[in-house]
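Lab notebook, bench 4. The sequencing result for the construct came back, and we need a structural model before the next group meeting so we can plan mutations. Quick request posted to the team channel:

Model the 3D structure of this chain.
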Amino acid sequence: MRKILHIDMDAFYASVEQRDDPSLRGRPVVVAWRGQRSVVCAASYEARRFGVRSAMPALRAERLCPDAVFVPPDFVRYKAVSRQVREIFLAHTDLVEPLSLDEAYLDVTVPKIASPSATATAEAIRAQIRETTALTASAGVAPNKFLAKIASDWNKPDGVFVVKPAHVERFLSTLPVARIPGVGQVMQKKLAELGVVTVADLRALPADELVGRFGTFGQRLHLRARGIDERPVQPDQPVQSISSEDTFAEDLPLDALEPAIRRLAEKTWAATARTERVGRTVVLKLKTAQFRILTRSFTPETPPRGAQVLADIACALRARVDLPAATRYRLVGVGLSGFRDPDTVAQEDLFALAD
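Done. Here's the predicted structure in token form:
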């Protein structure tokens, strides 16, 4: 039986800003560049009370919370704090799987520091984070990654929630299916048509019916509904790709996709700041109204240096879609792939200049 922690820093970027600038404490802080195409990188809990959330268009955040203080992101500072937190994790276990700058899975089945329980280890880590960084973190403790991630959000901010093996079924039963990763609005609607609203409803459906309707994702739904997740914590997994996608309320023609592409490029670019690696290849993903999936990609000589460049390339990739003009699209996605370490990219750029 594994003992897994999911540690999640509380409103990380906004909390760093409030820590470093006392005038921001207690005020609604939105970490974002201003502009029509900008998206929210993070929001303090004071701003979240107005409905402001990360990845939301900055203009909408401003409408929801007119008194919000907008602060441009400073990823150099955020990464420095993240490294401090990572060192605390590694003092307790070598099995640390970072998900981003502000969250990670830890396998503490056999901790490096003697501890009476996984819960005690989580509390020790949280205390060290507070002492070292003057920031708070929330933790989920569970027998697997799926449950630990849900649990870490249960007592936010600055809390711990434990899902014991004997209580898994009871914990999951009343949860809405939206709490299962991958169940977005479109999938929620499809499940609702089957009478599935809660995880208990989902558990009542036979596995073969779920697989028949949703393929491999149906099998995953069957397992998650029972709290089953055999994925191990995998340390030092380098980022290979980052993407964002959106399903439209109604199908759109290709020439109407630019606003969505630019918004998703902003979202994807903001997500790349959570890794220290550099993406080289721009990917445009499309799904037609008939559920046909297309991808088009381009690798420029130098990696994209900003959201606008990423968006410009993604928009240009539409010219390589050779379907009839009458084709309608239900989904679009923008991604970056081919991630490399910064030193490797710098060397490749230097050789390219030499040529």
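The CA atoms of residues 9 and 137 lie 4 Å apart.
Will bring this to the meeting.
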